[in-house]
Amino acid sequence: MRKLLLTVIFVLYCVPYVYLSMHNDFASHSMFMYGIMLIATIILAVISGYLGVWILAIIGNIVSLILSVYFNNKMISVPKWEDYFVPLFSVRLLILVTCLIVILQIVFYMVGKQIKQKKSIY
Q1: Which residues cross the membrane (predicted)?
Q2: What is the largest CA-CA distance in the chain?
Q3: To bridge 68 with a disulfide, which of 3, 16, 63, 93 should be the other Cys (CB 3.0-4.6 Å)?
Q4: Distance between CA 114 and CA 122 in Å, rounded?
């Protein structure tokens, strides 16, 4: 059961959340996916911290970044894609949002570890 849970966590970490958020923002002018990204990554970080599986978070974030860059590069040829994300342009925005999400995940990973430590005290 634990192996299945770890596999699901890893697969969810690999989703290119930043690209999906940017694409949704571009296509429908909606920030909805950024909120989904925040919620999903916070939940994943807390669970990872609770289970103590930081390597899944690291590798999953790297895969997610690579996929986001790949799909972003496919969209650069779409008219107005780069202009939509001015002044940062799409690649810089992608890197910035990824860095902010990773920092947020580190904070909530620690929260997950603290929850487990408090639970083990009782």
Answers
A1: 26-46, 53-71, 91-111
A2: 58
A3: 16
A4: 13
